[in-house]
Amino acid sequence: QVQLVESGGGLVQAGGSLRLSCAASGRMFSSYGMGWFRQAPGKEREFVAAMSWSGYNTYYDDSVKGRFTISRDNAKSTVYLQMNSLKPEDTAVYYCAGSRIPTASARIYEYGYWGQGTQVTVSS
C-alpha cells in the first residue's frame, strides 16, 4: 500500500512558478511509476506528467511540455512537479498518483493510488 500526500499548491499570478510535492508512505514507492493529474471545475481529470520508477523516463501532456518538470527522489519517497510560466488555464486541483506499473504512463486507469489533491490557482 502507498499513501500519497500533496503539498505546495496556492495562488500565483500568470507567468509565475510553483513546485508541488507528493510525499509517499510505503516501502514500494521506489518501484512505482508516478504521475501528476489535474481536474478543473466541470472537467474530467486529465494527465499532466509521469515518471518511471527509475526516473529515467518522463512523459508530458503537450499543454505543459517545456513549462512543467516532474522529478522524484526515491530516497525521500517524494515526487515533485515544478511548474513554470503558469497560465490561468493551469488552474485546477492537482493530484499525485502512483502505479504498480513502473513505466511513465498517461493512462489514468493504471494508477491505483491517489493523493487528496492540492489546489493551484493562476490569476490573470
Task: Give keywords.
124 residues; mainly beta; 7-stranded mixed beta sheet; globular
Could you provide a short overview of the structure?
The protein has 124 residues and is mostly beta strands. Helix content is 0%, strand content 49%.
Your description of this structure?
0% of the residues lie in helices and 49% in strands. With 124 residues, it is an all-beta fold. It has no helices and 11 strands. The strands form 2 sheets. Strands 2, 4, 5, 6, 9, 10 and 11 form a 7-stranded mixed beta sheet that branches. The protein is globular.
Tally of alpha and pi helices: 0
Estimate percent helicity: under 10%
How much of the sequence lies in strands comes to: over 45%
Provide mean pLDDT, rounded: 96
What structural class results from the helix and strand content? mainly beta
In terms of quaternary structure, the protein is: single chain
Rounded to the nearest angstrom, the radius of gyration is 13 Å
Can you tell me the residue ranges where pLDDT is under 50 for at least 5 consecutive residues?
Answer: none
Q: How do the SSEs run, as a string of H and E? A: EEEEEEEEEEE
What gap, in angstroms, lies between the N and C termini?
40 Å
Tally of DSSP β-strands: 11
The largest sheet is: 7 strands, mixed
- What coarse outline follows from CA principal-axis ratios? globular
